[in-house]
Amino acid sequence: MGEELWTNLKSDPAARVYMFFPVSGGWRIKELTATVKYLSPVPKQQSLWEKAAQEWQVLSPIVQDASTLADAIGPEVGVPVQGAAKTLDALAKLKITSLPQSEGFNWSVGKVTFGHQDTDPKRSGVMQGVVWELPKAMFTELGGRLTGSLAVTFIPCSKQGTDSNTVEPRDLLAHAVVYGPDAEIWAPAERQFVHLTLSPVTKQT
After folding, report:
1. What is the spatial distance between Cα 170 and Cα 120, in angstroms, rounded to a whole number?
2. 121-154 burial code (b ≥16 CB/10 A, e <16)
């Protein structure tokens, strides 16, 4: 069923993957970069490596300079710059291991918002996140070899009208749809989600 499905997808984009984060709990997230990755080798391995090498040439100065960014700016700036340099370094390295957007592999990512209802009040409310749109050609070539990642940063966010700095665990939600030859195939279901509890920790200064 796997190979038959991947070679008979109905539309383009052929699949969407959704990941949602809560806006409550005393924290929010800011998306930094999203990637699509694959398990190698694949039929187009050489062309993918050539495209990735081109992206590496563009990004390599960032990777090389990020670790020394704080020194270049000056020691008087302090710790925040050190943190920014580490983040920049990590993002560049994450990007160069992703699937390059070569011809036919023009995947994209966008922002999404929806209202979620659950029997647990802490799991209900407005959710914000991202959606990956994946082209048909990507599945034709790579099938079930695809995976991905999303880099985020956590931001403390007090409730309006309060001074509370309490940070509470909240659930990340995720689901995906593949546009099959006969019908949409949702996992786990169109109105159901995979749950992952996130428990940010605030550093004391």
Report:
1. 11
2. eebeeebebbbbebbbbbbbbbbebbebebebee
CB-CB contact of 96 with 62 (8 Å): no
Q: Whole-angstrom Cα distance, residue 34 to residue 46?
A: 23
The confidence score (pLDDT) of residue 53 equals 57
What distance lies between CA 111 and its chain's CA centroid?
11
Closest CA to 100 of 141, 55, 137: 55
Name residue 125's beta-bridge partners: 116
pLDDT in tens, 133-163: 999 988 888 877 888 888 888 888 876 655 5
Q: In 3D, which of 16, 25, 30 has the Cα closest to residue 129?
A: 30
Q: How many CB atoms lie within 10 A of CB 86?
A: 14
| 65-118 pLDDT, tens digit each | 555 544 544 444 444 445 555 666 666 666 656 777 776 788 899 999 988 888
Are the C-beta atoms of residues 188 and 177 closer than 8 Å to each other? no
Note if the bond before 188 is cis, omega within 30 degrees. yes
Give the pLDDT of residue 128: 93
What is d(CA 93, CA 99) in angstroms, rounded to the nearest whole number?
13
Can you say whether the dihedral through the CA atoms of 193, 134, 141, 3 is positive or negative?
A: positive
- At residue 193 the predicted structure's pLDDT band, cuts being 50, 70 and 90, is very high
